[in-house]
Amino acid sequence: MTRSLTIALTKGRILKETLPLFAEAGIEPLEDIFTSRRLLFDTTVDGVKLVILRGSDVPTYVRHGAADVGVVGKDILLEFGAEGLYEPLDLAIAKCRLMTAGFATARTAGPRLRVASKFVNIARQHYAAQGIQADIIKLYGAMELAPLMNLADEIVDIVDTGNTLTANGMVPLGHIADISSRLVVNKAAMRTRHRSIEKLIYDLSQAVERRDQPS
Ligand code: AMP
User: Is the CB of residue 96 below 6 angstroms from any atom belonging to ligand 1?
Assistant: First the structure.
């Protein structure tokens, strides 16, 4: 009997790009994930299940072995660390950049820069590496609002088209990292479920490569 393989997917924007890639690798949920209230789905591959989580919970499920494999943004791995995880494949989806941003004309009022972000560890490391004294303010959403409301001088946030920044009168200032979604694997599962995980990595890497080919 094959033991089931549980794959934790990040909901939202990443999920919309993950499902077509998984379909190209031959794995499709048996139910419409976007209309169902369920969080755990059987798939067209016997024994392969999908669980839908918040991005920041994916490494936790995979690290503890509650899921064997996960799909998560590199931003989450940089912010929360990737201990206990292998990161064997860049899925090249949900590509964006982690950037500092603010008003084009600097508005620093005090001796220390005030920086709002949900990526507090990344922000702290980034400004420290630049030798800039910064107070990092943790927010959970709508980072762009912080400079507008004079809560912060700059933000550290994900930028895709840049439209959100422009709409709020801000500009990207500094590039921190290029981001895309990654496949992560529980270290113990990599040994105990080697065959099924190797097959998954192979099938997904082939799907990623096919997308790279000029049509
Ligand atoms: P944009 O206006 O296209 O620059 O998109 C910026 C906003 O969309 C940011 O505030 C992010 O929260 C979100 N976003 C864009 N791309 C991604 C991504 N690949 N993963 C997660 N969030 C994203």
Answer: yes
Q: Is residue 164 lining ligand 1, measured as CB closer than 6 Å?
A: yes
| Candidate of 16, 164, 171, 180 to mutate for ligand 1, largest count of ligand atoms within 8 Å of Cβ | 164
Q: Are residues 158 and 186 in the same domain?
A: no
Count structural domains, the chain. 2
Does the CB atom of residue 29 touch ligand 1 within 6 A? no
DSSP per-residue codes, the chain: -PPPEEEEEE-THHHHHHHHHHHHTT--BSS-TTT---SEEEBSSTTEEEEEE-GGGHHHHHHTTSSSEEEEEHHHHHHH--TTEEEEEE---S-EEEEEEE-SS----SSSEEEEES-HHHHHHHHHHTT--EEEEE-SS-TTHHHHTTS-SEEEEEESSSHHHHHTT-EEEEEEEEE-EEEEEEHHHHHHTHHHHHHHHHHHHHHHHHHHS--
- Which residues constitute the domain of residue 77? 5-94+180-212
From the first residue on, what is the mean pLDDT of each consecutive set of 10 residues in the chain (215 residues)? Answer: 85 97 98 94 97 97 98 98 96 98 79 95 97 96 95 97 96 97 98 96 98 81
Same domain, 162 and 186: no
Model-level pTM?
Answer: 0.94
Return the CATH number at 126: 3.40.190.10
* Same-domain check for residues 103 and 160: yes
